[in-house]
Amino acid sequence: MSKVEKFAFHIPSLEELVGVLQNGLKENFADVHVSVVDCPDLTQEPFTFPVKGICGKPRIADVGGVPYLLPLVQKDKIYDLNTVAKEIQLPGAFFLGAGAVSSRTVGCNAELVPIVQAKNGDKPAVNGSYLAKINPENGGCLLEKYSTKYHDCEFGLLANLYACEGLPGKVIEVKANQRTGELNFISCMRKVLEKHYGDKPVGMGGTFVIQKGKAKIHIMPSEFSACPLETDEQMNNWLKFFEMKAPLTCQPVLVSRDPGFDLRLEHTHCFSHHGEGGHYHTDTTPETVEYLGYFMPAEYLFRIDRPKETHMVGRD
């Protein structure tokens, strides 16, 4: 069993968060509208999730970490979302987020876009995940629905996960258009929360859509690096970067401030219905970009299998 550490987040009301985000996001976007709404039916396009909503016992799990990938990969670090659901005290949890595939299952390295309802008693898991890998034929992006080839709920090395019961309910809707600042959508939200709540960490997760514009996305190479990757520059030279077009459905996990668990403070992966996806960095079309997101504050953080030896490379 992995070591599991638990922490209770500060949980502001949805109404309070609306005010904080509305004021803060205005510094980074020309057009901002934040409100409390009923969660839309996430079984519908463009989400096509196996559950209707992102409500019910919301929590965040930070599993493994970048130190298991860099400087050199530790391929034995393999996890299972059905096990993680039990470790976060929510059997049958619905998971969204960002991670790496299990190279044992997939046979290579790739970005995992987890969308999984874990098994619960006799009810089998429903895996709606995607994986984005480098197409060996042309070096482009190959986005695959996970369940077309694989029948497990494994992942490898690291994942940042938002988990809940997958229920309908009240959520925070964020509309942000025309980026005027330097920060990407999620970094901006996270820094707004950090500035407002200071040493009271707030965690959030959910989903957002880049409805218009293009985005800078990376995909890890299929082969792990044989040379140690010891700086962000070496890491970025190893990664493959793309400009991908909207609409992109994204799965952010963010924590305003690390309460001492060696967290990755933000991590967002995305998929689409036109064959593109991967790790979101920022939009590349600030004047035309349109974001529409649905978020929930998490009640708890679960830190699972925290690396004993750590570093800060490759965290953006």
Structure description:
The protein has 316 residues and is mainly beta. The protein has a single domain, classed as 60s Ribosomal Protein L30, Chain: A (2-Layer Sandwich), CATH 3.30.1330.80. The chain contains five helices and 20 strands. Strands 1, 3, 4, 5, 6, 7, 8, 9, 10, 11 and 20 form an eleven-stranded mixed sheet that branches. Helix 1 (14-25) packs across helix 4 (185-197). The protein starts with a strand and ends in a 12-residue tail after the last strand.
Strand percentage, roughly?
A: 35-45%
* Number of alpha- plus pi-helical segments: 5
Q: Write the element-wise H/E pattern from the N-terminal end onward.
A: EHEEEHEHEEEEEEEHEEHEEEEEE
Sheet having the most strands: 11 strands, mixed
- Taking pLDDT < 50 over at least 5 consecutive residues as the criterion, the unreliable ranges are none
Mean pLDDT: 97
**Corresponding CATH architecture:** 2-Layer Sandwich
**How much helicity do the residues have?**
10-25%
Query: What is the CA-based Rg, rounded?
Result: 18 Å
Secondary structure: elements and pairs:
Elements: E1 4-8, H1 14-25, E2 29-38, E3 59-64, E4 78-80, H2 81-87, E5 94-100, H3 103-106, E6 111-113, E7 115-117, E8 126-127, E9 130-134, E10 141-145, E11 154-164, E12 170-179, H4 185-197, E13 203-212, E14 214-219, H5 232-238, E15 240-245, E16 248-255, E17 266-271, E18 278-283, E19 290-297, E20 300-304
Parallel strand pairs: 3-20
Antiparallel strand pairs: 1-20, 2-12, 3-11, 4-11, 5-6, 5-7, 5-11, 6-9, 7-8, 9-10, 12-19, 13-16, 13-19, 14-15, 14-18, 16-17, 17-18
Helix pairs in contact: 1-4
